[in-house]
Amino acid sequence: MYVKYQNVVLKYFKTQAGYFFQKIAYTLLQFLFSYLSDMPPQRYIAHFDLDSFFVSVEVLHDPSLKGKAVIVGGSKDRGVVTTCSYEARKFGVRSAMPMKQAMKLCPHALIVRGTRGEYSRYSRMVTDIIAAKAPLFEKASIDEFYLDLTGMDKFFDPYQWTIDLRNEIIEKTELPISFGLATNKMVAKIATDEAKPNGYLFVQPGMEKIFLAPLAVNKFSGVGEHTFELLKEMGIHTIQQLSETPIAILEKRLGKYGADLWKKSQGIHHGQVHPYHEAKSISTENTFEENKTDLDFLLSELVRMTERVAYELRQDEKLAGCIAVKIRYPDFETTSRQTTIDYTFRDDELIPQAIDLFHKLYRKGEPVRLVGVRLSELTNHAIQGSLFDDSEKKNKLYKAIDSVKSEFGKGLLQKARTVKKFKD
Ligand SMILES: [Mg+2]
Q: What residues are neighbours of ligand 1 (ion), with CB under 5 Å?
């Protein structure tokens, strides 16, 4: 009923009053009607994703790569594809694919080893632009963001606002980025995929099901090869076919996940945008029973603590972009120093940074009361393969170490380095 009145009054203003009054009146009316009605506000979620992010950064540094089949990844025989350009994707190359296989599919592809610091720097640049504008956003990975724009439609057109934000990101970073705007996270993400490369798409409220209908069922995250085949066996290829299948049948074949899929096929998804906190960190500190001056002891403590926070980082499935070291002297004077780093969860990358910070901070020979290590600028771990040949092996090694640590307690397993005397 209110909606009906709202339309009548708005029509009056559109014909009777000037644009300025119209805007003010519209805003006031929206407020009034939203107060009066019990309807929850219309949700608007934007999903931003940088297009083949690592390749785009490489192209910025070397414009001759533009328009070519480019693969960012490790060595030809042992590495994996981290990401690849759209030109390489045309040949079937995909992220996380062994380089050997990728080179068979696309032998003329140019291979770039990857400049890791630059990726973190550009990721931060985009994060800062979004943080300055968006009321609430989630950094889903190094190159992916969800923005909750609910309520904004009282003041702005959310679609135009999102277009403007995209333009600003492209202008300031020169990186291609796509977005999908919709009433929930799931539809927004799929809209981004459909909009790529370097495009955008708005799925208007109420149009979710129509938008999804013609798409293949494996557009839903979680529908892997196995489920995809199973659904095909059932004669379900498109999301429309999925939406027309009785839930009971889906549940029988796929269990609870079947019902979940059916819900998705209706365009329904209630996932929240989890706010991104720059300050979120993992830290540990140690106050010594007596003040310490032994450098070897202090360094081995520092390494042990860094291993501990790195372990927690991996347990949270995060990467850190910043590390800080804190030293407190007996008179309670506390100093700390931090540095931004390439996103990582690896001990062998974090420990040298911690030691470096410690040396810059520590006044040699003075007794120390407390040492602390803190990791911050945490982001979700999205890089599947890694950029260095040995990293896949190392990641596996960390997983193995961590599972032992979890089982037997963290103190048991320390790398030889921590135990032996440690010098810079
Ligand atoms: Mg991306």
A: 49-50, 53, 143
Measured in angstroms, how far is the CA atom of residue 382 from the centroid of ligand 1? 10
The answer for residues whose C-beta is within 8 angstroms of residue 303's C-beta and 6 or more apart is 351, 354, 355, 417, 418, 422
The token pair that represents 120 in the structure block: 């973190």
Closest CA to 274 of 190, 205, 193, 185: 185
Contact between 213 and 238 under an 8 Å Cβ cutoff? The reply is: yes
Question: Could you give the residue numbers annotated as active site?
Answer: 144
Model-level pTM? Answer: 0.64
* Domains in the chain, CATH or no CATH each: 41-205 (3.30.70.270), 212-265 (1.10.150.20), 281-418 (3.30.1490.100)
Which two structure tokens, joined as six digits, stand for 62?
């070397």
Q: Six-digit token pair at 327?
A: 């030293």
Q: Could you tell me the distance, in angstroms and rounded to a whole number, from the CA of residue 207 to the centre of ligand 1? A: 25
**Residue, of 171 and 397, whose pLDDT is higher:** 171
Which class for 62: exposed (0-12), middle (13-18), buried (19 or more C-beta within 10 A)? exposed
| Integer angstrom CA distances of residue 216 from 64, 269, 289 | 36, 18, 63
Closest-CA residue to 58 (of 76, 83, 94, 79): 83
pLDDT tens sequence across 186-231: 999 999 999 999 999 999 999 999 999 999 999 998 788 889 999 9
Would you tell me how many other CB atoms lie within 10 Å of the CB of residue 405? 20
Q: How high is the pLDDT of residue 288?
A: 87
DSSP string, 180-191: EEESSHHHHHHH
CA of 43 to the centre of ligand 1 (A): 24
Q: What is the pLDDT of residues 156-190, one digit of tens each?
A: 999 999 999 999 999 999 999 999 999 999 999 99
